[in-house]
Amino acid sequence: MTRSLGATDFTAPIDDRWFDDYVEGAQYEYGLLTVSEEEILRYAEQFDPQPIHIDPGFAVSGPFGGLIGSGWHSAGLAMRLLADHYLSKVASLASPGVDELRWKVPLRPGDQLRLRATVLESRVSRSKPDRGIVVTQVELLNQDDGAPISFRAMNFLAVRPAQNP
Amino acid sequence: MTRSLGATDFTAPIDDRWFDDYVEGAQYEYGLLTVSEEEILRYAEQFDPQPIHIDPGFAVSGPFGGLIGSGWHSAGLAMRLLADHYLSKVASLASPGVDELRWKVPLRPGDQLRLRATVLESRVSRSKPDRGIVVTQVELLNQDDGAPISFRAMNFLAVRPAQNP
């Protein structure tokens, strides 16, 4: 079970969280998620069957000195922490995409991972004022503070509905 | 079993393919990969448990009129076609990341998917002349030519070793 690791968290719970609750400059951390060799192999056999990801014998003599996880597996792990803790369960509309996705250090079996999410930008849509766009710097960090993946995510979120008087 | 769909494919087989074989302007297509509702649910339950991805009942009344796959599932499917057909099994060194990742249309159960890979740029490293960087525009296309995912991938690849005389 993962949880908030930071000094602060959203005051609004994830099932009553709206565009308005994503404030520029806010930073949150969630974790810890661990990843096993078996999970790395299972992901890679399905989606990324390169020798460095599926063949521990080959990988030990390779450039990383052992098996490493697919970069897209790291993306999935980051998404899991975003879905469980950061991204509203009621206001999330869609994501047009992400920018500057980087794999700075390998994902390795036994890694203990946490997510750091920083709200870079938050603005109401001019054409559709019932929603806004939130830009988030997402970093998945390991036990040595290296980042197996980082990216800048864009998300459309509905604004908080008007309360009845 | 997926295969080359285009008029042309690499002349070098994937297990003897090197940096030199990625020529600017070349474009290849591979497929078809199908995705089922069960696969969409299985991915999302593990990595992206948002209602629109894991709850068909909720999703039918949602903005997309039905269940849609996680954007990161689309990334995994694109990677599978890249690994099976495009990315050298012997010369691939690592990828520093991707840029401009976009989810233009939803991934839906029953989609028949193909990969289009276009070599945008190919240049030998100045600091390490035994390798080069290849920049590829990657598009995963569905049966209507919509792109559930596209991105610009960077890959380091070893140059072809010198032949003995």
From TrEMBL, chains A, B:
Question: What is an example of a Pfam family matching this protein?
Answer: MaoC_dehydratas
Domain MaoC-like positions: 33-128
Family that this chain belongs to: Belongs to the enoyl-CoA hydratase/isomerase family.
* Protein name in UniProt: MaoC-like domain-containing protein
Q: Name the InterPro entries on file.
A: HotDog_dom_sf, MaoC-like_dom, MCH/BMMD
